Queue: 4 jobs
Job 1
Amino acid sequence: MNRYSHNPILEPIGAHAWESSLVFNAAVFAANNRVHLLYRAMGTDNISRIGLASSSDGYNIDERLPLPVFSPSNDMENQGCEDPRLSLFGNSLIMAYTAFGNHFQHQVYQIGLTAINTEDFIARRWQWGERILAFPGIHNKDAVLFPQKFDGDYVMFHRLEPDLCIARSNDLRRWYGLKYILGPREKSWDSWKVGAAGPPFLVNEGWLLIYHGVSADRVYSLGVALLDKKNPEQVLYRSEEAILMPTENYERYGKVPNVVFSCGQIIKDDQVLIYYGAADSSLCVATFELAELLPKK
Ligand code: BMA
C-alpha cells in the first residue's frame, strides 16, 4: 500500500464560502479518461454541499469547479448533503448520499437517492433527478448500491447502527429484504460500528467491499470484505487487520481527529486507488495492489 506522496490531493479554498473550511469524503466515477470526484464540502454556514474535481491521472487534480454541483433542496436535507457514493447503471449514474435534515419535527440523517444522466454529468450540466428517501424518518447512513442488479432488483448496503445491512428494491423507492450482513467485532479496530466505503466491485473471487470500522476509542479505519458473487449476503472473508489506519498528521489532526473515511475507489491495472477523507478535513488517495486486498491463499 502506498499513500500518495503529495497527499492531500484536495484542500479547502478560502475564497469559496461553500468550501472554505473542509473538503473530504468523495464519490468516484471514472469516464472519458478522467477520474471524476464528487466531494463533500463545508464552509462558513456549516452545511455540507457537494463539489466536483477531476484528474487525468487519478492523483493530480487538474479541474475543479467554482460552485457546488449538488446542494440541499428541501427540508429533508436542509442541514446538508453528505458522503456521496456513485454507481453506474447503463447511462444513469445513481448517487446515494446522507441527507441531514428534518423529518416532521425531528432532526435525522437519512439515505437520499438521486440520479443524473452520464452525458449531462460529463458535460457538467447538473440536472439531477428527483430526490428520494430510501427509509423515510429512519436514522441511516453509508448507503452504496451494487453496480449491477440481482434478479432485477437494485441491491443496497446501508448502515443501521452499528451494523452493515442489505436491502433490495426494483424502483429505488420501496426497499425490502432488510438483513444484517456484518457487524462490529470485539477488541478489534472495528469494535464500535461498521459501514460500507465505496460501492462493492467485482473481482474473480467475488465482490470486494472496502468498509470503514470505528474502534471503541473512536478511530476510523478501513478494512476489506469479500462477498459471494451470486449471493452478496454471504460473507466469504473479512480482513483481520485494517488496510488503512490514520497514522499521518493529516489523518490524525483536523476537524475530527483520527479518521480515514472512504466513499469510493477505482481499479486500474490490478491496482486499487482508494480515495478517502482525512480527519474530515481534506481528501487523500492511497494505492493498493489488488492482491493485498484479497484473502491470502
Ligand atoms: C461519519 C460521517 C462521515 C465522517 C465520519 C467521521 O458518521 O459523518 O462523513 O467522515 O463520521 O467523522
Note: The chain has one domain: 2-293.
Job 2
Amino acid sequence: MTETKHCAYDFTVGWAGDMNPPSRTDFVSLTLTGQGSGIYNNNKQWRRQSCWRKWKLLSRLQRNLILFTVALMLVCGIATNPSVTEHFRGLAVVAKEEGDHALKPAIHEVQPELDKLNRPLVPESPSEKQKRAAHKRGPPGLQNRLQKKGNVSDTQVEKEEGENWRVAMIDQATERRTAKEAANKVDVPEVEQEGHSHKEPEVDRLEAVRDAFRHAWKGYKEFAWGKDELRPMSKSYGEWFGLGLTLIDALDTMWILNLKKEFEEAKTWVSTELSFDKDVDVNLFESTIRILGGLLSTYHLTGDTLFLDKAKDIGTRLMPAFNTPSKIPYSDVNIGKGTAHPPRWTSDSTVAEVTSIQLEFRELSRLTQDTRYQAAVDEVMQKVHKLEGKQDGLVPMFINTNSGQFTHLGMFTLGARADSYYEYLLKQWIQGGKKETALLEDYLQALEGVKKNLLKKSSPNRLTFVGELSHGRFSPKMDHLVCFLPGTLALGAHHGLPAEHMELAKQLMETCYQMYAQMETGLSPEIVHFNMHEGSIGDVDVKLADRHNLLRPETVESLFYLYRFTKDRKYRDWGWEILQNFNKYTKVSTGGYTSINNVRDPEYPSPRDKMESFFLGETLKYFYLLFSDDPELLSLDKYVFNTEAHPLPIWPTAQ
Ligand code: DMJ
C-alpha cells in the first residue's frame, strides 16, 4: 500500500503574551506543505531534494530566524552541560598554573606541549573516542585490573608508541634496542605445572632497570654533570643548592645496581669537585635526606671513608639550623656562613621536615662518636612527643621555631608536610633496636588516629584510602606521597607489630596501584580525590591542576616492601607495568627522564623538563630491589631505609 503524506513543517515564532490580538503581526507563521498531492516517495534523495526546495522557498528573514533559533538552542545546550563547563573551569586553572611556570626561565622549550594541553575544546569524533577508549586503562568497576592480568607486550608498546607524542621526543631506536636486549636476556625459571616441567621465559627486569638508570645517567652526564638536576628537554640543568644533588643521591643506587664505571666517575667527582664550603642557603631537610643520607649509605656500602668525611662535613655545616629559641630547627641554613633562618614569609617549619632528619644525624653520631648530632635531633622528637595540638596521635603540619608549638591547628594529613613524621617514628624505633618505646607509642597511636579519622572506602569499588581532616571536615583527597604508608605498615608488621597492619598495607597498596592503573598513561597523578557517593561511576577523580607526575617513588617503594614480605608476584607485575609506563611517557630521547604535566593524556602528557634527583636515588633503586630475588640484598633485618631510600644499618648493638 502506498501511503500518502504531506511533508509539512509548522514553525510558529511569535509572541502571544497579550490577551488581545496584536494589531500587527508580531509573529511569523510558516507552513510548509509537501509536494502538493504528489505521491510520497520516501527515498533519501527525494527527501533531500524536497526539503532543500522548501528551504529555498523561504524568505531570507525566515531562514535567518530559523538559523538563529537553532544556534540559540545549541549554545544553551552546551552551556548547561556540567562536564563541559567543568572542563572550561579546569582549563582556566591550568592556564593560571602555567602562568606561574612561565616566570621560570627554563620552561620555554616545553611551551608547545603546554599549548597542546590548552588546545581548543572540540567535540571528539567517533574515531577519536575509540582511540581514547583504547588508551584508557582504568574503566569503572576496576575492569582494568581484571582485564590486564599480564604485562603490555612489546609489540603493543611499539604500536602505541607510533601514535603518541613521543614520536617527536623519544628515541624509539634506543627503546626498541632496549626491549630487544631485554628480551634476549631471559631469566628462565623452572615451573612445575600439572606434572610437566617447562621453561617460562621472562624479560630480565633487573636489566631493564639498569638500562633505565643508564639512560637517565647519560642525560645527566652530558648536560648536567655535577649540577643539581637535569633538564632533559632543554638539555640543560637546574641548580637548587649547587651541590651535585642528583650525583650524590644516585651514588648508592649505582653501587647496588653494580654500575661500576658510572660509580667510579661519580666518586672521582665527589673527591675532586665536591665542596660544601659555599655561601649558599640549603634546605635542612632536603640536604639531610639526600646528601647526608646518600653519603652515609654509600660509606656503609663501600667502606670508603671519603664518603664518611664528606658526610661529617655537611652534617656539621647543617648544625646551625638548631640554634633557635625553641630548638626546633629552622628550615634553611647557609652552609658557608654558618647561619640559619626560617623562610622569608614565616617563622614556622614544617613538621615532616623537623622530624625526618633523625635517622641520618643519629647515625652520624654513632659513626663519629660525636654525640652533638644525635642530641640535637632527639631533642626535637622529645618536644614533639609532648606537644599539645595532636588529634588521636595525628600531628598538624607546621611548628613554630620561636614558641616550639604547633601552628595551623586542626589540619591533618599523611601527605605533604606531615608524611615522613609517621615513617620516622617507626624507623627510628627499628634503627635503635626497638627500645625507644615513646617512638613506638607515638607510631601506634597515630595509626589509631588514621583509622579513626582518615581511613575511608571509595565508591563504587570500596578502595581503602587515607583522606585529610580540616577542622573536623573530612576531605577525600590523597596525595601520591601517602603511598609510602603501605610499605611502612608492612615493615612494622615484619618487625613484630600487629598482623592487621599488614592487612591494611595490602589494601592501601591496591589503592596506590589503582592510582596508576586508572590513568590513561598508567602513571599516577600527584593528587587524587576519591568518590564516596553511592552510585559514583569511577573511584578516582583528578583535578586538572593535580595531573602532574614528578617520577615519585612512594608506590614503587611500597611495592618493594610488600613483595619482600609476602612474595606475592602481583606486586612485581604492578611495578613492571609502572616501569614500562615511565619508559613510555617520560623517557627523553637524548637522555634522561622528565616529569610530566598530564597523566590523563597519553598523546600530550606535556613534559615539564625536569628530572628530580629522587628518580635516581629512590624510584629506580626501589624498582631494582623489587625485581631482585636476593633477600640478602639490603636485608630489611639489617638495614632501614631513610625517606630518600638510602639504607642505613640497624645498629648492631641494638639487635
Ligand atoms: C623524596 O625527597 C622523599 O621521598 C621525601 O620523603 C618525599 N618527597 C620525595 C619523593 O617524592
Note: Confidence is low (pLDDT under 50) at residues 1-47, 80-201.
Job 3
Amino acid sequence: MARIRQLPESLANKIAAGEVVQRPESIVKELVENSLDAGATSIAVAVRAAGKALVMVADNGGGMDEEDARISFNRHATSKIAAAEDLDRILTLGFRGEALAAIASVAQVELRTRRAEDELGTLVRVENGMVLEVGRTACERGTTILVRNLFFSVPARRKFLKSNATEFKHIVETMQRFALCRPDVSFTLSDDDTLVLNAPAGTMEDRIRSLYNAEFMNGLIPFDAVGDGVRVHGYIGRPNFARRSRGDQFLFLNGRSITSRLLSHAVYLGYEHLTDAGSYPPYILFIDIDPERVDVNVHPTKQEVKFDDESSIYDLLLEGTRRALAAHNLTPSMTMPSNTSGGESAESVLAALRFALPGYDRPETLPTRPPSSTPPSTERGAGYDRPAPQQRSAGGLIGRDTLAQLFGGGQGAEVPEENVGGGGGLAGSGETIEQEVRPVGQGAESPEAERHGIWQVHNKYILSQIRSGVMIVDQHVAHERILYERALATMKQAMPMSQQLLFPLDLKLSPTDFALVREIAPQLASLGFDIALDRGTDRVTVMGVPNDVRPGQEGAILNELLDQYRDYQQVGATDQQDLVAASFACRASIKAGDRLSEPEMLNLIEQLFATSMPYVCPHGRPIVIRIDLAELDRRFGRTS
Ligand code: ADP
Ligand code: MG
C-alpha cells in the first residue's frame, strides 16, 4: 500500500493558513486589503478581545454575487488574476486567492455581501473550512465579514497568541499603515465598543494630522524624487524631529506597505549624521513604479518585495533625502505649537545677518590657519580661523538706519569709511556720530560688543540680535557643523592640508584601536593625518594632523576620533569617510566652556552660515534657535 497520500483539502488549507494567518492582525490585514481591492471608500473594523474573539470588517465596496461569494472561500479562488502574465502587473493588494480560504479554515466566518445592482445580498457561513450555509439576506451594499474565535480548532496555535494588549497593538499598527497609505478612504477601528481610530477621508496632510497631530505634520518636510520609471513622494522628518524608534517610518510600494532594510538604509544614509545615535527620523514615502519592475510575490504576506533594479531606487531615495533636507533647511523654531509658521529658510536668516553682523559680506573664501609646526601648547579657543584684521576691514558697512534698526541704539550712526580699516570691526561708543566707530577690542567683555548685539553667554552660547528678533547659537555644535563640512571637502582633495608636527607623537594603542586605525588609514590620510603604523607593537607615530586641530589637541585628537568613530558606528552608520569626518568634527570643535572673543564669535557665525546646513549639527541637535520679536511681544503680552 502506498505510504504517500494526498491530504484532504481542509487539512491542506489549515497547513497553508499558517503562512497567511498568524494572529488576529493578519485577519484585519487580509480583510481590509480585500475591501480596498473592492473599491471601498469607507472601511469599519471592529474587534473583540483584540481580535481573538471577533474581527469584523465592513466595507462599502463592490460586493459579490451569490456564486462569487460561495467560491471566494475556495483555495486559490481569486477574481484578481487569471493567467500567468497577470502576475507581472499586479495592481491589487491580493492576488493569491488564499486569504479567505485560510481564515475560514482556522475560524468561524460569516460573510454578508451585496452588489449595488442586486436587491438582496448573500450570506455565507463557513467553519473549519466547511461551508455551512449559503442563503439570501437583506444587507447594505458592500461586504461585511465577521471572523469569530480564531484558532478555535487549532488550540496549539491559539496558545501562541500574545496578550490582548500586544495583539491589539499589532492591529493598530496595521490600521495606521492602511490609513496613511490611503487618505482617500475613511477608516474606523473599535475595540470592545471603544472607538480607537477615526480617520475620515481627506488629503494626505489631513490624514497625518488626524493620525498624529499638527505638530507632527509640522515636523515633516515634503519629499519628491523622480527617476527612470519611478517616482517617490511623501514626507520625511526634520532631523531634529527624530524619534526613539523606527515606529514612524513607512514605505509604500504601489499602495502596499512594504519593509525593506535596503531602502530604509538609503533614507538613513541621506540624513548623514543629522540624526542622533539611536534616533530615527520619521518618514512616509510612496514608491510608484511600473508593476512589471517589481515582484510582490516573494512571500505570502507580501511584506517583502523584489525590484528588478534595486540600486537605482536606492540611489533615488538617498539623493531625494539629501535634496529634501538641503532644500528645507529650516530653523528650529521656538514658537509655540499654536503658531504654524514653523521656521524660516536659511536664505532669509542669512539676509538678516548680512545686515546685523559687521563684516558679514566678506569674500566667500575664509582664511585658514597656515600649516604650523607648533608643539602642543595650551592656548585655548583659537581652534578655528581667527579673522585677520585686513579681512575684517573688507567687511560690509552698516548704514545708519540698519544700525539703529538692528541694534536698537537709535543714535543713527553714520559710518565713516576711513575709520573701519586697520583695526577692523565696527563699534560705536562715542558721543558724536563721527566718533561712533572705532576699532573693536579683542576682549569678549568689551562694551563695544553690546553695540554689535553679540554676546557670549555662559561660555556656551552666542546670543545675537538680528533684525527679526534674537538668535542663539550653540558654539560647539556650530563649530562641529563647520568642521564636518570642511573635513568632507578636504577628503575630496588630492593633496590634503596637514600641519606637520615639530615633535612627532609616538602613541601606543590597544590592539582594537590599532586595528581600527589600520582600517580607516586611507580616510585619516585624506583628512590630513600623517601617521606611520607599526604592526608588531601596535604603535603609531603621528607626524602631522589636519589643519583644524587646535593647538594642544594634537596628542589627544586621534584617540578621541577613534572613540567617536565607534560610537557612531554603533548606530549602524557604515560610510567610513563620513564617519571619520563626523567623528573628527565632533572632537576637534570648540567646546562649551571655551571662552570666545568677539571676532571669534563673529567669524564662527559667518562660517556657520556658509555651510550647507547651518541649523542642525551632525548629530541632529539644533545649532541655531531664533526667537522672533513677535514671539517675545506675545509672551510679554505686548500688542505692539
Ligand atoms: P485574493 O484577495 O488574493 O483574490 P481572497 O481569498 O482574499 O483572495 O479573496 C478571494 C476573492 O473574494 C477575491 O478575489 C474577491 O473577488 C472576493 N472578495 C473578497 N473580499 C471581498 C470584498 N470585501 N468585497 C468584494 N469581493 C471580495
Ligand atoms: Mg485578499
Note: Residues 330-450 have pLDDT under 50 and may be disordered.
Job 4
Amino acid sequence: MSSIRPAPARPLLRHFINGQFVAGEHRFPNISPVNGECIADVAHADASTVDAAVKAAQAALQGPWGRATVSERAAALHRIADGIQARFDEFVAAEVADTGRPVHQARTLDVARGIANFRTFADLVKCANTELFQSESADGLGALNYTVRKPLGVVAIISPWNLPLLLLTWKIAPALACGNTVVAKPSEESPSSATLLAEVIRDAGLPDGVFNLVHGLGGGSAGEFLTRHPGIDAVTFTGESRTGSTIMKAVADGMKEVSFELGGKNAAVVFADADFDAAVAGVVRSSFTNSGQVCLCSERVYVERPLFERFVAAMKEKTAALKIGYPAEDKVDMGPLISHGHRDKVLSYYRLAREEGATVVTGGGVPQFGDERDGGAWVEPTIWTGLPDNARCVTEEIFGPVCHIAPFDSEEEVVRRVNDSQYGLACALWTSDLKRAHRVAPQIEAGLVWVNTWYLRDLRTPFGGVKQSGLGREGGRHSLDFYSEITTICIKL
Ligand code: NAD
C-alpha cells in the first residue's frame, strides 16, 4: 500500500491581471493532442475578469509606463527577450505540450521567433522616424508640418493556436514598443506559453497593468467580452476569416482600430524551368510544416504540364517518407493536429475529397500507432490530384497536412487560377527564370509572394493579406504605424 501515491495535481494556468496571477472561479481543460489526456486546468475568464484586465490596462496608461521614454520601453523589451532566452527550455516544453509539434521546430522557429519579435521591435522603435513636410505659401515663409507618435491606448490582442508564442509576441512586442498597454487572450487550445510569458514580463519589471493576460474561449466568452469592452482602443487579431468578420461587427459601434491576419488558401506554382529537387523539397515543406497548420502553407499546387507526372511522383515519395511521431523523436517531421475538433474538420475534407472525385496520391487516413497516441489527434499527410478548380477541397481553407496538385499550361492561365480565390495571403513561385519571376509576382493577388523559397521572413517587411485573408499590414514600420496614434502638427513660419 505504501507504494500507492496520489496522482500529481495538474497545473492550473491562471490569468495575469494588474501584476498578479489570479484564478477566478471557472476552468476549462487543456488537452494534449498527442494522446488526448488533460495536461492542465486553465482559468476561464468571465466578463468581470475581462473588465478587471481592461481597467488595469487603462490605469497603467496613466502611470510610469505612460511617461516612459522610447529608450526605456526598448530596454524593457530587451529584458523580456532575455527572460524568454533564460527560460528557453521551459518555453519549448510549453509549446510542445500544447501542440505536440516537433521539439526541434519549437526550438528553431517558435521560441526563437518569440525572442526575435521583442528584440526586433525594441530596435525598430528606437529608429522610428516621423514625417516632415515644409509647405509653400504666398508670403514665402510657408509652414512646417510634422507628425508625432503617441500610444493608441489599450490594445486587445487575440491570437490563434497554430504558432502560439510566435503570433502572440508578434503583436505584444510592437504594442508595448509603442507605449500601449495590453490585454491579451491566447487561444484556448494553447494557453501554456502565454502564461509563461506573463511570468517573464512580470520579472522584467514592467509596471503593473501594462501587460494583462486572460484565458478563455472566443464567442460568448473571454474573446467576445474583450472585443466588446468599451475600454479598449484597438483590436489586433489573428485567426479565421469568419471570426475576423464577427470581431469587426463587435467593434463597429465603438469605432475601434483593427488589424486582422486571417485565413488563406495559398498556392505554390512550379514552372517547368524550376530547379526540380528544390521545388519538390520546397512544396513538401510548404504543405506539411506544422502538420499544415501554418496560415502560409500551400494547399493548392499548380505544376506546369511537362513536369506534372514526375512532380506528383516525387511529392508522393517524399511525403510518404515523412516521419510522424512524438515531439522529441529523432528527425521527426510531423506531430498531430491541434485537437480532436480540428481533426474532425480535416477528416471531413479527406472524405469530401473522395466524394468530389479526387485521386488520393498518398495519405487520406489516420495513422495507427497501437499505443497511447491512438487517443490523440493524428492524421496522415495527404496529396490529391484530379479535382476541378471549383471543388470545395480546392477553394476552402482546410488547415491540415494536405495539398491538391493540378497541371497548368501557360503563365496567364496559372495567374488567373491562383487569383481565383476568396483568399489572398501568400504564394510561392518556383522558377529559374528571373524575368518571369518579376513579371508574375506582382500579378498575384496576395500580401506576400515568395520566389524559390517559402516562409523566409524578414520582420521589418510588411505582412498581411488581401481579400478574406486580412485587413492592414503589420511588420516593421507598418506595426509601428498601427500601434501608434499619429498627430500632425502644422506651424506657420
Ligand atoms: P479562430 O478564429 O477560431 O480563433 C482565433 C482566436 O480568436 C482564439 O483566441 C479564439 O478564442 C478567438 N475567438 C474566436 N471567436 C471569437 C469571437 N467571436 N470574438 C473574439 N474572439 C474570438 O482561429 P484558430 O482556429 O485559432 O486559428 C486558425 C486560423 O487562423 C486559420 O484560419 C489560419 O489561417 C488563421 N491564421 C492566420 C494567420 C495570418 O497571419 N494571416 C496566422 C495564423 C493563423
Note: The first helix runs from residue 47 to 61.
